[in-house]
Amino acid sequence: MSELEPSEERALREQLGALREDPPELGFQASLHRRLAAAGPPEPASGWDRVRSFFRRGAPVLWPAVGVAAGVAAFLILSAVQTPPAAPQGSAEVAQPLETPGTAVPASKVAVIKLDFTADVAVEEADFQVSLPEGLSFWADGEDLPLRSFQWTQPLNAGSNVIPIAVRGHKPGRYLVTAMARAGDQKIEHDVVLEVTDG
After folding, report:
1. What transmembrane ranges does the database entry give (predicted)?
2. Cα–Cα distance between 87 and 89 in angstroms, integer?
């Protein structure tokens, strides 16, 4: 920018000085004060304005805290609703037998052991085997059967499949009944304790 000549500078100062406005009269201040007093206090901010103001003031701390809380909530919700993976087609799982381990039965009575074979999906063909130790025998049609082990094949429905096995004890003692199920390449065994008492 080039230097102004003294005469040009003086003319510019005069023009800038002419732009000044005189301060308002004292009556203006009094009039403004009267109008503000008559209007009363300002109306309180709406709820939304207060929320926005709160978030604006607490933003440096509040937003990271909200993010952490949302992450924890999402983790807890996903943990609660996550379902276990489904078993592959054709697999079966044997649940614990319904009969309580250590069940006592008199030697003169027949015990019915209820085995609950539970399958996640229907299985067309599953192999089962129940084995008895010496001192127990299978019971059918009112008499002891000479078999120590009984095997059969049957389909399984999806869900619970209760199979009752009648056995009888010849002498007092604790006996271990072994149940086995095989479906495809999966084999599961469970033991049931049966106590035969005098009587």
Report:
1. 61-81
2. 6
